Amino acid sequence: MPSPQSLSEPDRRQVATWAADCAERVLSVFESEAPADGRPRDAIARARAFAGGELEAAGEIRRRFVAGRAAHAVSSPAAVAAARAAAQAAGVAHMGAHALGAAAYAAKAAGLAAQDQPEAVRDEISWQLEHMTDETKSALRQLPPVGADTAGPLGPGLLASGILGSIIREIQAAIGDESPQREVP
Q1: Is there a domain that residue 92 lies in?
Q2: Buried b (16+ CB within 10 A) or exposed e, 67-102
Q3: CA 136 to CA 139: how far, in whole Å?
Q4: Residue 181 lies in a domain
Q5: What whole-number distance in Å separates Cα of residue 67 and Cα of residue 89?
Q6: Whole-model pTM?
Q7: What is d(CA 91, CA 154) in angstroms, rounded to the nearest whole number?
Q8: pLDDT at residue 172 is higher than 60
């Protein structure tokens, strides 16, 4: 039985566009530190190609870690988070829950890149929510609350803790996740 974090392939294709949009907003944070490293940009392009039906999930599952390795090529926490946002966007082909990871890492990168602007994370989350289609909301509502299911990226690990967990909880609350085991932030 597939994980509840997987989503159907049509739903993964739907949320991949939004995940790519989220990651692309902070791509310049990574590229300002590593302008010659095209792995995050390529990951975002692959997420878009997957969303458009140009790439198959099987091939993308094998390639999903490439952009994540780019995080080791930079030193600033903001650039690392931006690379991880792109990697999470590419991972949507494998598991739909990675879309929330892409959004969380993008908001984290935005906040780290603008530490003199305390509202930067909230502004990024607002942008993400405003640019989410009804179809994307519907697909993301199928995911379990972050930290509630151990069979995927939304399990009790990295995405469920700290600022990443807080961001995902805020997004899930805003889109109206109606799961009875929802954690209250």
Answers
A1: yes
A2: bbebbebbeeebbbbbbbbbbbbbbbbbbbbbbbbb
A3: 5
A4: no
A5: 10
A6: 0.90
A7: 13
A8: yes
Pair 55, 76: CB distance under 8 Å: no
DSSP state of 115: T
User: Which phi-psi region, left, alpha or beta, contains residue 146 (left: φ > 0; alpha: ψ -120 to 50)?
Assistant: beta
- Owning domain of residue 13: 9-174
CA distance 58 to 63: 9
The answer to whether the beta carbons of residues 102 and 88 sit under 8 Å apart is: yes
Q: What is the mean pLDDT of residues 51-62?
A: 74
Average pLDDT, integer, range 58-79:
79
Question: What Å distances lie between residue 61 and 13, 49, 50, 102, 137, CA to CA?
Answer: 13, 14, 11, 16, 23
